[in-house]
Amino acid sequence: MAYSPAVTKAVVPVAGLGTRFLPATKATPKVMLPVVDKPAIQYVVEEAVAAGLGNVLLITGDGQQSIAEHFERALDLEARLAARGNQRALAAVRAPTELARVSYVRQDSPRGLGHAVLCAADHVGDEPFAVLLGDDLIDARDDLLARMIAARQRYGGSIVALMEIPADQVSAYGCAAFKPTDDQDIVAITDLVEKPDPNEAPSNWIVIGRYVCDPAIFPVLRETPAGRGGEIQLTDALRTLAVADRDVCADGGGVHGVLFRGRRYDTGNKQDFLRTTVEFACARPDLAPDFVPWLREFLRNLP
Ligand code: UTP
Questions:
Q1: In ligand 1, which atom is closest to the CA atom of 109?
Q2: Residue 275 falls within a domain, yes or no?
């Protein structure tokens, strides 16, 4: 049986303060920082659209008008580019406006990812929905979100994406305990532990920034107290749904994990942001022929 209704909406929380990138994020939202020549948020919206989710809700905070401006027409700029006959630049300016139906809800203050997702409740209604973190990029060639939506249709409940990392790094992440299912790359989540001690971690599979949530998450989030860092954590609410008796949660209970072995780029911290920029530049046919030889030479000359 396929669980319905289908997933049609994407929620992208971007209201965090981006403190790790100050001062760059003083007047520019973190997700507007460019990875080569596109802001991170555009890659994320492109990914949602590629998975069939053309209805995208951004959860925004103070001082983030530039995000909305990025997805709106810029008529003056377009007129100037058209007057110069610069069709390539014109296409680049129009592309984000033609991508998706983007709407916005404000999170008054950044009280955590769980609180940000709760701000989507009215927009989402009684349907399952995807959550994509605006600073986590998944390579367009790896169709993670489509696999997660298919897993939701097969198993119902909520779906998280899991990625294996070295055991000595798990304490920085949300970590999953799970048991196998009949599907090789889908597991049944039995517990989720936020930032475990390395020797108490139930596995070295961490939760990354893609989710498909059953609307049953909303009443759970309303009851979820502030956790780590004084913030309402999405992981805590998913844990409640994962460990609860399925009868208690009725149809919306149960959490499954899709095992992801593809390419993920975390643009939310400086080290990974720099790596992402270099990797993306090396994969770009218009840049790589000049950039890669320069990079090789640069590294050879590094003391
Ligand atoms: P992060 O913790 O990685 O982002 O949250 P941050 O808070 O902006 O960054 P730092 O830690 O201060 O450097 C993951 C995602 O969840 C969003 C963030 O914008 C980011 O995309 N988020 C987080 C919200 O929308 N609201 C919140 O209250 C917290």
A1: 28
A2: no
